[in-house]
């Protein structure tokens, strides 16, 4: 796992590997890096420790998320992990599940649980 001095120019110059993926780590911020996949996709990533477990959190993709934004997001997340006991990867997963469940529940209520009134039928 190579460590590089991350700049906009160095990130743009990273070439995809022939197969698989390669992680490049920032020399300035430990645990922060970019993963380059064989297809050319570049994803910002953060490795951190939560108890005995190492966790990986994907912050976003490059270039839509520039280096400065990714580094700032990573710094805030690391601060939350160290001082507030937060787990960004777990929070992201819960957020994704909660949205999906909410949509499912709303759809179920609209389609099946609401009582439909039939013309001419008394309700109550």
Explain what this protein looks like in three dimensions.
The protein is an alpha+beta fold. The chain has a domain at 3-85: Integrase, DNA-binding domain (Double Stranded RNA Binding Domain, 2-Layer Sandwich). Helices cover 40% and strands 27% of the residues. It contains three helices and five strands; from the N terminus they run E-H-E-E-E-E-H-H. A five-stranded mixed sheet has the order 1-2-3-4-5. It is extended and about 60 Å long.
How do the helices and strands line up, and which of them pair or pack?
Layout lengths: L2 E2 L3 H6 L7 E6 L5 E6 L4 E9 L2 E10 L4 H18 L3 H26 L11
Parallel strand pairs: 1-2
Antiparallel strand pairs: 2-3, 3-4, 4-5
- Total beta strand runs: 5
Q: In angstroms, what is the radius of gyration?
A: 22 Å
Shape: extended
Helical coverage, percent range = 40-55%
How many strands, which pairing sense, and closed or not: the largest β-sheet? 5 strands, mixed
Give the N-to-C terminal Cα separation: 69 Å
Low-confidence stretches: none
Average the pLDDT over all residues and give the rounded result.
Answer: 84
């Amino acid at each position: 796992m190579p460590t590089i001095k991350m700049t906009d120019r160095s990130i743009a110059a990273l070439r995809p590997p022939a197969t698989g993926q390669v992680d490049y780590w920032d020399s300035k911020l430990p645990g922060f890096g970019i993963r380059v996949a064989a297809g050319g996709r570049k994803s910002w990533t953060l490795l951190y420790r939560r108890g005995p477990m190492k966790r990986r959190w994907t912050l976003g993709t490059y270039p839509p998320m520039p280096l400065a934004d990714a580094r700032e997001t990573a710094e805030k997340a690391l601060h939350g992990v160290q001082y507030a006991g937060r787990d960004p990867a777990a929070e992201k997963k819960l957020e994704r599940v909660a949205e999906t469940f909410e949509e499912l529940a709303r759809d179920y209520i609209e389609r099946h649980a609401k009582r439909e009134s039939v013309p001419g039928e008394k309700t109550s």
